[in-house]
């Protein structure tokens, strides 16, 4: 042993380029052997479960649970999707599906209608908010999970389904036969606030988002007749979605410059997206509303518009999901969702576990010490760390440039609602303190700049 140790020491000191490859090969072989032993361990545990568990087990379910555990042990956003979950994910990202057009929840074991979507089979058949769907094709919905009931109501366009509905005020259940159609949930809701401020809310980033945004802004511009003073892009409680849609939405308001970059495990896999010329808002002053439910793709858009000073970000700090998941289909099975990169705003900031800080903080309600804590990315188990402090990069992270607003405009924004203000009601925009402050901010900014169409400073 002494001779071997002396020989190794001599090799390491006098000829490292000779000794190192031999040592690496030994280490790789050793690591591979350990991996095989651990795989044997997995097989032993699996066989023990099959033979000894108190009840018979389904082999597929046990193995899928093991795969999912392996992925979820990496970070909160990596996971395994069985074939059914994979299909559901594809439906969500497409933004359209064959179905009835009903937003539903579950109450006392039954499916309860929140609202029918306009111009869908459900709306045309007279389904109303508050209806309880008790049977689907004569089979009770009692005992079904909400997901199982939704899957039964979805189906190919042109196929029929029979709903049994109990409605308040009706003594007998109603029997409705509906023919499924292609449903496109409204991903962009928009309206004019007071006739001079355009408001558009994006609820998700699926394949329909950017097109819906363009149509919304075009419609409101025509409605306003050239009198728009600003635009509000509401990303509150938007959990994100497709990266390419986030890039396109940010690009819609930027003429040039970086939108977002991603950096993976290998340097050669880094990517960067840049804006092309063209601003669909034609330079209108913008506010982006965010809150603790704004995550992922929402944060990409908010961060890009903030760094380029194309918009003022208002609200409270966002969720802080700064990682990219790649969906990798497994032939004949489902797919895995694997975290493959972190993304960075144009100034080089990683928002992983930190979030986007608003330029102007505006709370939705007065502070309540007894209010439950809302989890963010940093609170999740095994959340990736933020690497702003130790990342080796040619471009260090920098804060966004200053706002440079006209005097008195920012100071007139009320951080909290007035004492005694009515509680927030989603059906009454006047109770939405953050929204009302954004509207007033844009009007004050237009007045200070001398006109509704003056181009925003960059």
From TrEMBL:
The record's annotation in Pfam families points to: CtpB_N-like, PDZ_6, Peptidase_S41
Instruction: Note down the stretches annotated as region Disordered.
Output: 388-407, 413-433
- Provide GO CC annotations from the record: outer membrane-bounded periplasmic space
The record's listing under CDD domains reads: cpPDZ_CPP-like, Peptidase_S41_CPP
Q: Kindly give the SUPFAM superfamilies that the UniProt entry links to this protein.
A: ClpP/crotonase, PDZ domain-like
Q: Name one GO biological process term.
A: signal transduction
Query: What keywords does the record list, in alphabetical order?
Result: Hydrolase, Protease, Serine protease
The entry sums up its family as follows:
Belongs to the peptidase S41A family.
What protein am I looking at? Peptidase S41
The organism that produces this protein has a lineage beginning with: Bacteria, Pseudomonadati, Pseudomonadota, Alphaproteobacteria, Acetobacterales
């Amino acid at each position: 042993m002494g001779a071997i140790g002396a020989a190794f020491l001599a090799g390491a000191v006098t000829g490292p380029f000779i000794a190192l490859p031999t040592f690496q090969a030994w280490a790789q072989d050793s690591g591979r052997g350990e991996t095989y032993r651990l795989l044997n361990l997995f097989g032993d545990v699996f066989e023990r479960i099959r033979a000894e568990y108190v009840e018979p087990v389904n082999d597929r379910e046990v193995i899928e649970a093991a795969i999912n555990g392996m992925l979820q042990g990496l970070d909160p956003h990596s996971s395994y999707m069985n074939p059914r979950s994979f299909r559901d994910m594809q439906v969500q990202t497409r933004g359209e599906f064959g179905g009835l057009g009903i937003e539903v929840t579950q109450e006392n074991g039954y499916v309860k209608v929140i609202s029918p979507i306009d111009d869908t089979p459900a709306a045309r058949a007279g389904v109303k908010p508050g209806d309880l769907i008790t049977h689907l094709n004569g089979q009770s919905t009692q005992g079904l999970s909400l997901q199982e009931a939704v899957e039964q109501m979805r189906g190919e366009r042109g196929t029929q389904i029979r709903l049994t509905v109990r409605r308040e005020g009706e003594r007998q259940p109603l029997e409705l036969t509906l023919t499924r159609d292609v449903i496109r949930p409204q991903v962009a809701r928009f309206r004019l606030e007071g006739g001079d401020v355009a408001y558009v809310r994006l609820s998700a980033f699926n394949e329909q988002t950017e097109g819906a945004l363009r149509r919304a802004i075009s419609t409101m511009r025509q409605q306003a007749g050239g009198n728009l003073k600003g635009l509000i892009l509401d990303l509150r409680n938007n959990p994100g979605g497709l990266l390419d849609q986030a890039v396109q939405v940010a690009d819609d308001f930027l003429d040039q410059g970086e939108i977002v970059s991603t950096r993976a495990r290998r340097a050669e896999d880094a990517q960067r997206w840049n804006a092309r010329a063209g601003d669909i808002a034609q330079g209108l002053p913008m506010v982006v509303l965010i809150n603790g439910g704004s995550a992922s793709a929402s944060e990409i858009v908010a961060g890009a518009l903030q760094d380029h000073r194309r918009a003022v970000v208002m609200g409270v700090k966002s969720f802080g999901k700064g990682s990219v998941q790649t969906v990798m289909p497994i032939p004949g099975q489902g797919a895995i969702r694997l975290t493959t990169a972190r993304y960075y705003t144009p100034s080089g900031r990683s928002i992983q576990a930190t979030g986007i800080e608003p330029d102007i903080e505006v709370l939705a309600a007065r502070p309540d010490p007894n209010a439950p804590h809302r989890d963010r990315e940093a609170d999740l188990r095994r959340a990736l760390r933020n690497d702003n402090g130790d990342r080796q990069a040619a471009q260090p992270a920098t804060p966004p440039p200053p706002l440079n607003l006209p005097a008195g405009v920012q100071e007139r924004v009320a951080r909290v609602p007035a004492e005694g203000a009515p509680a927030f009601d989603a059906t009454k925009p006047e109770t939405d303190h953050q929204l009302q402050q954004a509207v007033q901010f844009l009007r004050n900014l237009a007045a200070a700049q001398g006109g509704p169409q003056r181009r925003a400073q960059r």
